[in-house]
Amino acid sequence: MKNFFYYFILILLFFNSVSYSLKDGEIKLHLIPHSHCDSGWTSTMNEYYMNQVKSIITSMVQALNIETNPPRKFVWSEIGFLEQWWDDMPIEIKNDFTKHVKNDRIEFVNGGWVMNDEACASLESVIRHLSNGHKFIREKFGKQPESGWQIDPFGHSSLTPTLQAQFGYKHIVLNRIHYELKKKFRDEKNLQFKWRGSPEGVGAKSDILAHVFDDFYTSPPHMSFDGYNFLAYGLPRLTMEMIELARNRSVFYKSPHVLIPMGGDFAYRNAYKSFEQMDQLVASINGHHANGESNVICQYSTLADFFSETIDWHNQNKVSFNYYDGDFFPYADDSNTYWTGYYTSRPLLKGYERHVSSKLRSAEILSALQYDEQYYPAPLLNASKQVSILQHHDAISGTSKKHVVQDYFVRLQKADILVSEQSEKLLASALSEHSPTKLDIIDIGGSLNFPTNNDAISFVLFNQLSWVKEELVSIKVQWDGEPLVSSSNGCPYVLAQEDFLNEIEIDCSPRSDFKSDQSDDHREFIQIDFPAKLKPFSSKLYYLKRKSNPSKSNWVLPKTNHFNSIENSVYIANLDENYLIKSLQSKYHNHQKTEINQQLLTYSDVGGAYIFRTNKQVFEPPRQLYSTYTYIGKFYQEAQSILQDTHQISNRYGYYYYGGGNNNVQQSFSTFNYNSIKLINTGIEKIDKKINFIFHIKGINGTTTINRFTTDIDNNRDLYSDNGLEMMHRKSVSSQSVEVGRETQSYYPTINSVYIESHSTGKRLVCNNDRSRGVSSQGQGFLEMALHRSLTYEDGKGLEIPAIDESSINARFECYLDEVPNADGGGDDIRKQSINYQHKIQIYQGQDSSYMSSKSFMLKPLPEFIHILSMERSGPHSFKLRIHNIENNNQSPITFDLNGLFSFIKSIKSIKEYNLSLINRFVDNNIDNIFSSHRSIVGKNLFPIKDTPTRFNPINTKQTKITLFPSEIKAIEITYH
């Protein structure tokens, strides 16, 4: 006790001096106390909160209430948990928390609703969860985060620095990068670097100073003080271990400032005890230094403290941070453990999140289009928070236990209901100020309600995009009459557009729902297909009427004879015996033929929720063609098949896994897969060139199911997949086909789009996806997309039980042939086409057509590549929006005028500019003061640096014209008369 008191006095004298500058050879340890609290993983978010997080935050605040020297500090990330805690706490402890924030003892790092996944979360969803977190921080504490803290996602996206820099961040801490890269960075002292997320896009606006943990985000060995380490090892040993650790880790960095994370998963459940023991360790380390026994000093720090002192040292000593402008996918622990499975795991959850997110975005836009000056409805904020939770790196990734996944579904269902209710009210109100009713939204798979005693029903289409939208709309109408296929009476409906008598041509076909078990309880319906063209942010009114043998309604009966091809105005698609594509023949370009051999294949997958691991050649299960149907309408031709696959299954520890023909096969069973290929024929090339695919498949235990295109496009196995904002070039080291067992090393995430291309022929094959998934090019001309996974092995990453997922999904994607753009990149509209695919025209049915109308809320179009990313009501005469230039990166900036844009605005009163949060004002978060080079940490090349746009380029808020550079997003608030 006397020794401890002696050390404590020494440390008081040490830190009470005016200032202390490190001497040559000295090392400073920055202890960063933190608790990594997953928003669901092996327990649900609420279970974690009630059993652990609530006491962690309370205990931490109480521990910080004790004055020590050096002062105790803490960093906190997940604001979704903090809001729960805040609502539960009495005013006294909330005041204590606030005091610590104001005194810089508690620092918000990341500050999002969750710590988001970086491979599966979309651009819109990442912005949403960060903004929700920043809103809470600004409203409660008047602060905003300046440092990112992405310590647990399984690989890092270049979208992260691009967005976080534009949220006002200057620094970020990373952890999980490829094991070979981490070793290389350690050996070359490049674990700290300037990370440019968008080198060819927004340039300096995407710069952030990155720090990669040299080890992991948990406390060093023996240094976790939630248990009995302190008593077990004793203070003298722990002191010497920490001093030795400081010396060992300091060699990985150029500066003598060493960051040591002190914490881990759900750490500090007894923060009083943990800090009491750490206080003794800090005092002991500094006592050794004061006695001249050590060159190591130690303090508690926040990230702000650590980065400030590290940057100062680099600047004073003219030691530069080097440069990196890629991402960190795929992530691997070793040569046989590639974290590429979670790109695809739980595809049903991934697809549902994307669907609800698109609906929520539309509802928020509708909130801004009101004449009655309603504020942003509270239920939409609630829904937004639920969707934000899904961005957690164990949620959208599909890497949680089964009951937690179910909890995520429940959250999405609640959000879905809230969004539907609000959308129905908001659109009705926007179309008619005095509407006494609401509309009924018709979701994908839903049907129009046509009561038997009604002669007509009305519905409206709504375009939630800020450009003209042209689409072949498909609508289901439930049928309860005689069996449809045997009906010879023709289509019983006619469709009128805008005027009750203005009948338009439609394709009308009898259909029934596919049942994967091939049971007889099929639900019959009539499908109406018609081309629609809607202005930006507009609705269009339609009437569906009963009518016998209408002349403009084409009755399209299914044909059961085998077709060798289907066609439209752009392609002839040649089909194989299973109705999968064999080749495409263009009706343009001298009828050029492209080999595109489509296969539905299976990997035997011995990985888990996180890890994709194969043990044999990809194969096609024994397969029989069960049935085919072909629809030949005016506006489309569609080939459907039902394929019966036979699977051989073995039993292992009570779980079934894929036998693949081994001698230990226990049983066989069959599954039925539904396949649809649809060519649209509207006469509009940009619509008709897209081939629409649907696979209705279920998860087969022990497998990953993929769609593979084998083409004659000589891509050298190079692949391009998007990060949600930009296409990333996935270069291959060889054009040779991948060896068995190494397939997973060539898998990458895609949020929306993927393509392969040939620079020798100029051909490009592009696919837009309905959800995030893993993609790869396993051989010359190959493009494959993982569709479903069900795992019977546990990959040792914490779940403890296999991630079995036998759900049935409708996996949708559209693909088209294109040409590689010229060197200037003109005409490359991949991003626009993917947005079109993500945000379909919405359908709303109404009971009273007198309150429904065709209406446009934009008076003039925006330039072609200007996209309103988000829009929401913020006050009686104001709304906020994010505007995005999605033009190819090497194009010129685009200038446009906001004045006269919206129909509900007489004139613009004022414009305010924010950072991407739409919460905090856009200010100069310049990091030019950081002494850095443009020498790459990979390859040592000097990179050409793009100068425009500058990091801080505020708009002139005294005028209504805005200029956006390619890939740039501006966030503004408009107040109007």
What is shown here, in short?
The chain has 977 residues and is of the alpha+beta class. The chain contains 16 helices and 49 strands.
Describe this structure in words.
With 977 residues, the chain is α+β, with helices and mostly antiparallel strands. Helices cover 23% and strands 31% of the residues. It is globular, with a radius of gyration of 30 Å.
Describe the protein's topology.
Elements lengths: L1 H15 L10 E10 L8 H20 L9 E3 L2 H10 L2 H12 L3 E3 L14 H19 L5 E4 L8 H8 L4 E4 L4 H9 L4 E5 L10 E6 L16 H5 L1 H16 L6 E9 L5 H20 L5 E5 L2 H15 L3 E4 L7 E3 L2 E2 L8 H22 L9 H12 L12 H30 L8 E3 L4 E2 L7 E8 L5 E10 L14 E5 L5 E2 L1 E7 L11 E11 L3 E9 L6 E3 L9 E3 L3 E5 L5 E6 L6 E12 L18 E10 L3 E17 L2 E4 L8 E14 L4 H4 L2 E8 L4 E9 L7 E4 L4 E4 L17 E3 L2 E5 L5 E7 L3 E4 L5 E9 L17 E12 L10 H9 L3 E5 L8 E2 L9 E10 L2 E8 L8 E4 L10 E7 L17 E5 L24 E4 L4 E8 L1
Helix pairs in contact: 1-10, 2-3, 2-4, 2-10, 5-13, 9-10, 12-13, 12-14, 13-14
Strand content: 25-35%
Average pLDDT, rounded to a whole number, is 92
Low-confidence stretches: 1-19
**What is the rounded Rg?**
30 Å
Number of helices: 16
Largest sheet: 10 strands, antiparallel
Q: Report the count of strand segments.
A: 49
Distance between the termini: 72 Å
Q: Assign an overall shape.
A: globular
Helical/strand content category: alpha+beta
Q: How much helical structure, as a percent, in the residues?
A: 10-25%
